[in-house]
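Lab channel / #folding
Pinned by the channel admin:
"Please post every new chain as: sequence first, then the structure tokens as a reply. Keep commentary short and put observations after the output so the thread stays searchable."

First post following the new format, from NK:
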Amino acid sequence: MRHVVLFHSVYGLRPAVRAAADRLRAAGHQVSTPDLYGVPATDTVEEGFALLDKIGHEVVLDRARAAVRDLPPETVLAGFSMGAGVAGALLAERPDAAALLLLHGTGGAPDAVRPGLPVQLHLADPDPYDAPDEVDEWQQALTDAGADLTVFRYPGVGHLFTDPELAEHSPDASAAAWPRVLAFLAAG
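Reply from TO:
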């Protein structure tokens, strides 16, 4: 099975992230869930963005780098929302990553993609943080760079639709997403 590092959203390390890690562990994967904030998770997205501003994006990235430092080079980089962006940002520094798994947000620059890199995106449609035309451009750029990209869009759901503690949770979309994630990780 795989090593997976799973980065949290702007809310912080919420129970939903730990539950997702447990789901992946139950499928046989080794999963790390680093706390990029070092303080308890927030209750609202506004508090999360305020905390991110206070901590600083570079500090968050440095903590992510430290979290993966001792993991195998072929670790799957994964994340929720902001964490998807963090996972994508680390791709350039970890060219041997086994895959890029993006939940609720895009991540990864085309120049960091090696040909054949498996990438899977799960995104609300529309998503308040990723405009459809921007997602289409990102998708085309990653495909042109040689990524083996699969995009799943979930119509009419909220941004963090897999988090059962949030009002935007969608049981149906979440139930559709997790088997796809598990199949993606099992394919390698």
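NK: The beta strands are 3-7, 30-32, 76-80, 100-103, 118-125, 148-155.
TO: also worth noting, The radius of gyration is 15 Å.
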